[in-house]
Amino acid sequence: MDPALQKLINKQAICDVIQRYSRTLDWLDDDGQASCYWPDAEIDYGFFKGSAEDFLPIVMDIERGSDRRWHMLSQPLIDFHSSTSASSECYGVFAGASRQDDGTLAGNLYGGRYLDEWEKREAGSGPEWRISKRLYIVDWQSDLVNQPEFMPNPDFPLPTAQIDKSNHPLYREM
C-alpha cells in the first residue's frame, strides 16, 4: 500500500479511538472505554497512576457519580514513529454536574490536554491502534452552577437525556 495512504488510515484509526473515548465515558459504556487502551497501558491522571486495567473501574465509577457528563476532545496532532507506534496531543473539555444539597444541578468545567502514546497490536479482530501510555494535564477549571434539569424547559423545549446507568435506550453501538 502507498505509505501516504497507510498513514491516513492509521491517523483515522487513532482519531476514531479518541472519539470513542469521549463517547463511551458519556454513555457509561465500560467495554467501549476499555477498547481505547491496551490493558497494560501506563495511565497518569494525577489522582491515579497505574495500568489502564486498574484505572478503568475507577474512572467509570467517577463518571457514574455524575448526573450529567460531557467530554469533547479536539482533533489530535499525531507523530508516527513507525508503522506500529505514534505519539499524539489533543485538547479536551469536560463538564460534569451532580445534584446539590439544595436540589439543583451544579458541577465543574475542565480544560486540559491529553499526551498519548499509541501502539498498533494484534487484538481479537486483527491489528488495531490503542493508547499505550497517557498523561492528562489540567489547564483550567470553572464552576458550573444552576445547570438545566432533565425535563425540557417549556420556554425552550430542547430534549434532554438522563444517562445514569449503562445501556441507555438512546445509546447505539457504533
Description:
With 174 residues, the protein is α+β, with helices and mostly antiparallel strands. It has one domain (3-147): Nuclear Transport Factor 2, Chain: A (Roll), CATH 3.10.450.50. 24% of the residues lie in helices and 44% in strands. The protein is built from 3 helices and 7 strands. Strands 1, 2, 3, 4, 5, 6 and 7 form a 7-stranded mixed beta sheet that branches. Strand 5 (85-99) and strand 6 form a beta hairpin. The chain is elongated. The mean pLDDT is 93.
General form: elongated
Number of structurally distinct domains = 1
Strand content: 35-45%
Mean of pLDDT: 93
Which fold name fills CATH's third level, the topology? Answer: Nuclear Transport Factor 2, Chain: A
* Number of distinct beta strands: 7
Radius of gyration: 18 Å
What's the CATH architecture?
A: Roll
Distance between the termini: 27 Å
Q: What string gives the helices and strands in order?
A: HHEEHEEEEE
CATH C-level category: Alpha Beta
Question: Largest sheet at a glance?
Answer: 7 strands, mixed
- Assign a percent range to the helix content: 10-25%
**Uncertain segments:** none
Number of helices: 3
The secondary-structure class comes to alpha+beta
